[in-house]
């Protein structure tokens, strides 16, 4: 294939996305996902295979949203039909390479963007794409079955998210594939404190400077009159109550308090559980106390031994059943200790409250109650499960945080949410959190540097990534999809309760019919409107359903007939709609915010829809 | 969200008369001919039918651009687009027909020019004007009006306009009423959006579900803002509209909602005022939100909803529009969620409800101001500029200005001093007032019962 040069260029320049300021252009969307997400978007690199109308619509949405680096891969020349269906291929472009013409036309939408075009097929792309070329996401809009599989395999190996898109007439689907995707999610409403926000504030296990500041500034409370008391920010009240429970001498003990309970319980459990299990627990707790900093190797190996006890790569981290019995026991114990402590703090606050009805008191109590009512432990959810991500850097950072957490506590969240009360005190409190967050990041970076592991040099782990993980630790989750495999239902599956989900069944029918049409078209020519072909198509779809282990009554003659009649026909609205949806999913995966589509999405005609999960 | 299956009576102070309610006959029979089995066949004629339509696109913002683009791709030849705004830099993250060099130009004219350049045979006319300024006959010349407007107020205006041109005026015209415009309304906020089809007297109109829309920042009643603020928004509005002009005497020019210093200033004053009245919740982001009246907007949601609106036009042209599920709701925050819903018409709808009457109970001692306030905040009415006439006597006229000045003094008088009627045995009296609203093209009979 000939064409313009400049195919997949190596992009190794590690740009620090913390530095730039967003432009007025993106003002209206920054309010949804924030500045840091916008910067990620502006540093993303996206490959789009296929330059027909769907591909063009995806590229359009991404360019408008601020993606500045796009690679278009296509191997066809513009036809008259293209110029009628694709808004971005005007009649003048007929005869030119589609990818080149499109790149030229799209430039207008985002003057800062670098749009590259490669004349070639999905196979060319897969062959030229080497693993050290960073791609944020790959979107396949047009290709043959075997080539899609090829790209999907390459993406799976490279841990690059992939979206497969297909529109035919009024029918279409989006199939996502990502082996693992770490998401940073905050509460949707900045005013409301989520449970995770509360945990990230670490009021129950306050850091030293916070306790010291609270004591120095507000202790004892008896010196303030009512109006002044009402001005104390509520977190301070919790910290003070926590302090009042233990005097100075026992404050030190409080840090190991929880662990002691665990240990005694573990001893008790040893009588019931196999011997190794309890020993493992012992070494786990001991290992941290004896200065993990001096021998990070050991701490890590201990840490991994306990937490990777259950190997599980494919497992969903939201699934609680995976835990072995001993860790479950330990979990229960920790939780009980926390609950006791919370009760005590609440009790103390109520004592102080006496007959005053101050809003900050009420709020502090409400927050404590929310923590007490939470069903799971206070530690970040991402660290409750085996830490073996494909992303080695992320794994290392998280492991370091876990090792350090026992000495320093969990890293605090940098941004404190809205607090009311005395403005000076609130500002000081926010500054304290920022300083502590910086210290935490520094400590993690130091630890990473002191480690001696061959694969990723500790020095090479970027500080901004560590900062991002630290300040989002409590908000992180992991999502996975199945691997795309045409022989195995394209990674899709029918929900087990599909009998009660007519949309899912309908959507599965369209999915089958569309795949059967593709397969049939590759082998035969001219399938439109012919009754013989209609039967052949139905048989093909049913054969496909059987080989995927789906029920063959999902696809009906109606599906097949509709596909036959509408296939190959231009439905501009469908291309725009599905293109926009795919672009939205791509953005979510790039900025690692919001819940991405993790199953198969089938759409037909906007009014009849369905989800295959 | 809100249960849409039926519209229950919402307010105890307002009743609706149920008798005489009949489902109206279809004005446009073609719109009802939905047969799922034949849609594949008719899809082949999609473009041919769509080409003969005359479509008005109200609003050339993000939705407008997508609607125009998609309609043109379908081959619709006669399109008009109307918008009063000019292109700003913050529009460029989603409005696909504009680019940097268009900043400062009219949205409608630029969009029309861009479309004409791409499709030589497409007859697109742009109007740089507010929809409210166009004569009714202008709207009458279109079969379908697609709206991608940015305010609830403009939507309500357009909605009532559709009903004005659809409403049969006399017996003769009712018999020949073959023309009924259809309104297709799209709206987005962040990653969520909706598109709905309004066929007059067949499906629920904007006014039927007006309580679903959030209150707009511009509509805080001034007397509340000045006298008795209750919400943090009131304090911000006060700081911006009352304190800013008085303190700066125009030295800093008008308030710029995008200027950080100005925002900080308003924030400080609003905080002070909020503290005076014991109101909590004034934040910088809320200040920005109130001042800029802006909702978050992205390219993707707008493209999806815009294309959905355009597809609806094409389906309408082909008679395969779904008769019941007229509301498409979309949410992209968590996976992709698309729902199509049916909304019942509201029988007491002031625009399309059949002869419903408004009944309001009030104390006779309450001042007229309270009644006016109630009309403004009432969830089913949400009047903009209510005017009240009783027995050919203006009680309160919000427009024109001289009349407002004359009738303003009535505002502080108790109702039983203004409306002097026959007090009956139960010590309550019923008055029939005419309620009109120049902002919404509304004219209704209102029964006021004083206790």
From TrEMBL, chain A:
Gene Ontology annotations for the cellular component aspect, listed alphabetically: cytoplasm
Domain of life: Eukaryota
Residues annotated as domain THIF-type NAD/FAD binding fold: 26-600
Chain residue ranges for the region called Disordered: 1-21, 308-329
Pfam families in the cross-refs: ThiF
Protein name: NEDD8-activating enzyme E1 regulatory subunit
Xref: SUPFAM superfamilies: Activating enzymes of the ubiquitin-like proteins
GO MF: NEDD8 activating enzyme activity
GO terms classed as biological process: protein neddylation
Ranges annotated as biased composition (Basic and acidic residues): 308-318
Signal peptide segment: none
Annotated InterPro entries: ThiF/MoeB/HesA, ThiF_NAD_FAD-bd, Ubiquitin-activating_enz
From TrEMBL, chain B:
Region (Disordered): 1-24
GO biological process: protein neddylation
SMART domains per record: E2_bind (SM01181)
InterPro entries (UniProt xref): E2-binding (IPR014929), ThiF/MoeB/HesA (IPR045886), ThiF_NAD_FAD-bd (IPR000594), Ub_act_enz_dom_a_sf (IPR023318), Ubiquitin-activating_enz (IPR035985)
Entry GO CC: cytoplasm; nucleus
EC number: 6.2.1.64
MF terms in GO: ATP binding; NEDD8 activating enzyme activity
Coiled coil feature spans: none
EC class: ligase
Descriptive protein name: NEDD8-activating enzyme E1 catalytic subunit
Originating organism: Cyanidiococcus yangmingshanensis
């Amino acid at each position: 294939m000939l064409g313009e040069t400049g195919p997949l260029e190596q992009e190794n320049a590690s740009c620090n996305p913390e530095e730039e300021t967003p432009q007025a252009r993106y003002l209206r969307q920054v309010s949804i996902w924030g500045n840091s997400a916008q910067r990620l978007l502006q540093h993303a690199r996206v490959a789009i295979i296929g330059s027909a109308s769907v591909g063009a619509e995806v590229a359009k949405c991404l360019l408008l949203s601020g993606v500045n680096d796009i690679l278009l891969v296509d191997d066809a020349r513009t036809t008259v039909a293209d110029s009628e269906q694709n808004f971005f291929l005007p009649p003048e472009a007929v005869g030119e390479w589609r990818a080149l013409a499109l790149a030229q036309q799209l430039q207008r939408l985002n003057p800062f963007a670098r749009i590259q075009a490669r004349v070639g097929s999905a196979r060319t792309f897969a062959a030229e794409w080497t693993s050290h070329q960073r791609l944020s996401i790959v979107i396949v809009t047009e290709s043959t079955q075997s080539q899609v599989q090829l790209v999907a395999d390459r993406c799976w190996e490279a841990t690059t998210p992939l979206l497969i898109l297909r529109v035919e007439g009024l029918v279409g689907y989006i199939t996502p594939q990502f082996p693992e995707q770490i998401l940073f999610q905050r509460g949707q409403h900045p005013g409301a404190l989520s449970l995770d926000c509360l945990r990230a504030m670490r009021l129950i296990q306050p850091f030293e400077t916070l306790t010291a500041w609270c004591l120095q500034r507000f202790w004892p409370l008896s010196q303030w009159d009512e109006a002044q008391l009402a001005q104390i920010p509520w977190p301070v009240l919790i910290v003070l109550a926590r302090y009042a429970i233990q005097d100075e001498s026992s404050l030190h003990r409080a840090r190991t308090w929880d662990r002691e309970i665990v240990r005694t319980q573990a001893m008790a459990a040893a009588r019931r559980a196999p011997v190794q299990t309890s020993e493992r627990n012992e070494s786990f707790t001991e290992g941290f106390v004896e200065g993990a900093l001096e021998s990070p190797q050991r701490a890590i190996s201990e840490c991994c031994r306990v937490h990777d006890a259950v190997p599980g790569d494919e497992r969903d981290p939201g699934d609680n059943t995976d835990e072995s019995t001993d860790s479950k026991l330990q979990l229960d114990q920790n939780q009980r200790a926390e609950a006791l402590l919370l009760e005590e703090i609440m009790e103390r606050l109520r004592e102080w409250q006496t007959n005053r009805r101050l809003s900050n008191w009420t709020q502090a109590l409400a927050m404590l109650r929310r923590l007490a009512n939470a069903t799971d432990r206070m530690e970040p959810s991402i660290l409750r499960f085996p830490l073996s991500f494909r992303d080695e850097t992320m794994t290392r950072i998280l492991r370091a945080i876990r090792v350090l957490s026992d000495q320093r506590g969990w890293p605090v969240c940098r941004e404190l949410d809205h607090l009311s009360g005395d403005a000076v005190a609130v500002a000081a409190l926010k500054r304290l959190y920022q300083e502590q967050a910086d210290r935490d990041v520094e400590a993690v970076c130091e630890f990473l540097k002191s480690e001696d592991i061959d694969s990723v040099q500790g020095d090479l782990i970027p500080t901004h990534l560590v900062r991002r993980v630290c300040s989002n630790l409590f908000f992180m989750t992991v999502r996975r999809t199945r691997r795309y495999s045409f022989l195995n239902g394209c990674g899709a599956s029918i929900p087990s309760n599909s009998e009660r989900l007519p949309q899912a069944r309908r959507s599965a029918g369209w999915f089958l019919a569309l795949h059967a049409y593709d397969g049939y078209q590759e082998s035969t020519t001219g399938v439109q409107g012919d009754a013989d072909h209609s039967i052949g198509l139905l048989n093909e779809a049913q054969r496909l359903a059987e080989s995927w282990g789906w029920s063959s009554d999902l696809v009906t003659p109606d599906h097949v007939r509709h596909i036959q009649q509408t296939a190959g026909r231009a439905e501009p609205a469908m291309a725009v709609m599905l293109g926009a949806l795919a672009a939205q999913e791509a953005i979510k995966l790039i900025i690692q915010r919001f819940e991405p589509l993790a199953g198969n999405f089938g759409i037909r005609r906007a009014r009849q829809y369905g989800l295959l999960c | 969200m809100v249960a849409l299956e039926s519209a229950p009576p919402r307010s105890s102070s307002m009743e609706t008369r149920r008798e005489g309610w009949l489902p109206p006959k279809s004005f446009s029979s073609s719109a009802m001919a939905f047969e799922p089995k034949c849609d594949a066949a008719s899809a082949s004629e999609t473009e041919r039918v769509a080409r003969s339509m005359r479509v008005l696109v109200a609003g050339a913002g993000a939705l407008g651009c997508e609607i125009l683009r998609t309609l043109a791709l379908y081959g619709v030849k006669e399109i008009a687009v109307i918008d009063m705004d000019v292109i700003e830099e913050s529009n460029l993250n989603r409005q696909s027909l504009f680019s940097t060099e268009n900043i400062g130009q009219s949205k409608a004219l630029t969009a029309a020019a861009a479309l004409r350049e791409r499709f030589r045979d497409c007859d697109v006319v742009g109007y740089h004007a507010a929809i409210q300024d166009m004569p009714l006959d202008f709207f009458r010349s279109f079969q379908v009006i697609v709206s991608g407007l940015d305010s609830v107020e403009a939507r309500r205006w357009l909605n009532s306009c559709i009903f004005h041109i659809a409403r049969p005026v006399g017996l003769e015209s009712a018999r020949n009423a073959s023309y009924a415009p259809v309104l297709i309304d799209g709206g987005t906020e962040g990653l969520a959006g909706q598109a709905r089809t309004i066929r007059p007297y067949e499906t629920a109109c904007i006014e039927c579900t007006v309580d679903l829309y959030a209150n707009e920042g511009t509509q805080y009643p001034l007397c509340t803002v000045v006298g008795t603020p209750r919400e943090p928004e009131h304090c911000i509005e006060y700081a911006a509209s009352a304190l800013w002009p008085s303190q700066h005497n125009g030295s800093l020019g008008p308030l710029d909602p995008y200027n950080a210093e100005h925002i900080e200033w308003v924030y400080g004053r609003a905080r002070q005022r909020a503290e005076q009245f014991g109101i909590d919740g004034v934040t910088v982001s809320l200040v920005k939100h109130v001042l800029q009246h802006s909702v978050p907007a992205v390219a993707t949601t707008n493209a999806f909803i815009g294309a959905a609106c355009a597809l609806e036009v094409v389906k309408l042209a082909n008679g395969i529009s779904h008769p019941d599920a007229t509301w498409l709701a979309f949410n992209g925050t968590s996976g992709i969620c698309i729902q199509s819903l049916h909304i019942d018409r509201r029988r007491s709808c002031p625009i399309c409800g059949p002869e419903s009457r408004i009944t309001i109970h009030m104390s006779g001692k309450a001042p007229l101001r309270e009644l006016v306030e109630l009309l403004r905040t009432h969830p089913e009415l949400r009047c903009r500029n209510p005017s009240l006439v009783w027995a050919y006597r203006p009680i309160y006229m919000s427009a024109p200005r001289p009349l407002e000045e004359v009738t303003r003094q009535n505002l502080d008088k108790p109702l039983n001093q203004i409306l002097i009627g026959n007090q009956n045995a139960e010590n309550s009296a019923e008055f029939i007032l005419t309620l009109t609203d120049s902002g919404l093209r509304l004219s209704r009979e209102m029964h006021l019962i004083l206790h």
